[in-house]
Amino acid sequence: MSLVTDRRRVVLGVAGGIAAYKACELLRRLTESGHQVRVIPTESALNFVGAATFEALSGQPVHTGVFTDVPEVAHVRLGQQAELVVIAPATADLLARAAHGRADDLLTATLLTARCPVLLVPAMHTEMWLHPATRDNVALLRSRGIVVLEPAAGRLTGVDTGPGRLPEPVEIAELARLLLERPDALPQDLAGRRVVVSAGGTREPLDPVRFLGNRSSGRQGYALARVAAQRGAQVTLVSAHTADLVPPASVRMVTVGTAAELREVMVAESKQADAVVMAAAVADFRPESLVGHKIKKTESGPPTITLATNPDILVELVGLRPGGQLVVGFAAETGDESGDVLHHGRAKLARKGCDLLVVNAVGDGVAFEQPDNGGWLLAADGGETELANGSKALLASRVWDAVAARLG
Ligand code: CTP
Known about the structure:
single chain, alpha/beta, Rossmann fold, 2 domains, eight-stranded mixed beta sheet, five-stranded parallel beta sheet, binds cytidine-5'-triphosphate
């Protein structure tokens, strides 16, 4: 799989925190996507990573002040030409300087001349993140349309844990791509909302070493959870088996194995939710009985495995739906002699009774295990929107648009 998408001009700002070392991996990911990346560290960032590292990885010169390349007026040129500015890590000091329009180094001066989407990725100690001064600065920046990510919770420098960790570079790169695809993809329109998203594929055990599973990677469900969290929602991600994915920052994760476990968790977690999204690929059938030992080859030929039908979780959630809650389903379809993908999608929306159904075509290397996705968003109120092919985060942002509009 090629990582190359298209060549865009990206400014990567790096402020002076220990997470500055992770900016190197982010830089690699951005350049591997084909972008031309100009790194602008602050003076203090260079205490953590040397300019030579950023120059070698980006293939571009690296300066911190406005008094280098004076005839070029670098802060104006870089800001005006940028199609995206990402600052990772953004320290409490950087957020404060950005919020108040300071221009005391090349990075903050560039921020004032940039008219493109700006993505700030905070990393700091929990106390600094939760301090009223930082909260106010974040609110002010967001009110101006700047995207300030929610940090991840977890181990910080030293022994303390809590919100303040830099989200993983792969996650930042995914959200950077999203803003390049769609600059208005991350408004704070889900603030105060609770959402539950299921992801991945269930595994139905046959014996201690074998199971019935499916090819779902979980990428679409993780993208839905990630985008919802960054649009302000309180997110629970119920994760069945997935590929090796990075847990989304600022999301509560519950892991499950079988359809029965997924059902139990979804029913419990959905009670308080404003929106529930069933992106998981649920096995429709399970082996009727679990054999307690490894099934052996015998002279008498292969064993007969009797299957039992699993409950339809989506239909059950629709039946239990409290007033005002939205339930969203997914349908991966292939066309057949009885109709095309859209025809099967419409029939499934009616059959399942959910409010929204995302329909996508699968098979022949489309959708499953791929970074991109597209299709249609069908609504019980009659709306049908085509979802242009793009990243799974882009598709997620369209789904949350429809949810936010209906939640009012
Ligand atoms: N789903 C579910 N429980 C099941 C099967 C599916 O909750 N036992 C949900 C999926 O999470 C998805 C939607 O229903 O949101 C549609 O899944 P799909 O597998 O396409 O539906 P099926 O009912 O299995 O239809 P088909 O006959 O096409 O397999």
